[in-house]
Amino acid sequence: MPPYSPLSLRLSDEPDPAWKVHQIASERKAAGEDIIILSIGEPDSPPPPAVVAEVDASIARGRTRYAEARGEAAVVAAICGYVSRQAGREITPAMVNFFPGAQTAMFGMLMTIVGPGDALILPEPFYAPYTQVLRASGVEVDHVPLRPEDGFHPRIDDLRAAIRPATRAVVLTHPHNPTGAMLDRAELQAIADLCAEHDLWLLADEVYGEFDFAGPYTSILALDGVEDRVISLGTLSKAYAMTGFRHGWSVAPPELAARAGVLLEAMLFGCVQFIQDAGAVALADGGAFPRAEREKYLRRLDRVMAELEGASAIVPRRPEAGMFVMIDIRPTGLEAEDFALRLLDQERVSVLPTHTFGPSGAGHVRISLGMDDEQLVEAARRIRRFADGLA
Ligand SMILES: Cc1ncc(COP(=O)(O)O)c(C=O)c1O
């Protein structure tokens, strides 16, 4: 057989170890076991009803044709309005590209800004599915640790020390998955200033920005003096519970956005019109749906924390933002995967060990708040019972 491309060969075709426990749990649940799965980060709400109705209406209007490569004008305008409100700064259509989800936006923007021979800086632990995206681009990744004792916030000195001649970008997930850390404006500005000093792109995945618990979230688009280098990725997957719609975007300086647009044209030749229409309807609510989702997650967070605080040998970490709670299990003396597998066997709760998201995630497991209140509280009770048993 003729050979595959270097890009394809950079990708691993082994199952991602990050999902091992989740996979075992899912198989056992499918086989009929009563397992509560908290190991995946998908919102439990259905999408807004007006959005679902718009899919039918849009198809009935004939919106089933080829579309603008960079996004249809109406949804791009809606994204501009939404992100401008979040950033407190005017975002123009020339800065926006429509992508089928933030994952694809990460792929497209990395392909546009880095390649083999370049390096970028990515704090770890990091969102595991980006591993393959990074490999595809061929970029070398320099990780800096997010230490539990710092609340998983990056240290500016670590970032500075990781810069080398090949470095082209700093990549953040803000707010952070899995750790729930949310950087404040001063921290973000210091990172942005570092990027300006070394002429680096600052690329941030901001998909959890709506779910800020510890104070108002600041988008990297709100920072001063770095308009020519910040790239923000957004999505309706989390805020509007629209994961399967594959509806996301990038916001970038106009010149870079136009470069990425060439890639979009080459690769996607436009995205689905009726999905874009549905997205425009979602965004027309002025943020009401995400606000209600945020309240829901906050209520669940309070209930989970109330169950877990005071448990023996585990320490729940209250997230500053996002959809997840990290639990520090180091006092149990167990490895995170061992903890998760034993918890699954004994209490039928599936949690995600985070060592596979990066070595600084060791000794922790992540639970998702995307589960109805009663199941979530029951799961927290089981986790507590398990931990108390270990102690
Ligand atoms: C940090 C982060 N980025 C991106 C995504 C995927 O977003 P999308 O559905 O828009 O591709 C997820 C999903 O879990 C995520 O946690």
Helices and strands in order:
Layout: H1 6-10, H2 20-30, E1 36-37, H3 49-60, H4 73-87, E2 96-99, H5 102-113, E3 119-124, H6 130-137, E4 140-145, H7 156-162, E5 167-173, H8 185-197, E6 201-205, E7 230-235, E8 248-251, H9 254-267, H10 273-283, H11 288-308, E9 315-317, E10 324-328, H12 336-347, E11 349-350, E12 352-353, E13 364-368, H13 373-390
Parallel strand pairs: 1-11, 3-4, 3-5, 5-6, 6-7
Antiparallel strand pairs: 2-8, 7-8, 9-10, 10-13, 12-13
Bound molecules: pyridoxal-5'-phosphate (PLP).
Describe this structure in words.
The structure is a single chain. The protein is an alpha/beta fold. The chain folds into two domains: 6-46 and 288-390, Aspartate Aminotransferase, domain 1, CATH 3.90.1150; 51-283, 3-Layer(aba) Sandwich (Aspartate Aminotransferase, domain 2). Helix content is 41%, strand content 15%. It has 13 helices and 13 strands. A seven-stranded mixed sheet has the order 2-8-7-6-5-3-4, sandwiched between helices. A hairpin with a 6-residue loop joins strand 9 and strand 10 (324-328). Helix 11 (288-308) runs parallel beside helix 13 (373-390). The chain is globular. The mean pLDDT is 97. The site of pyridoxal-5'-phosphate has 13 residues, from helix 5.
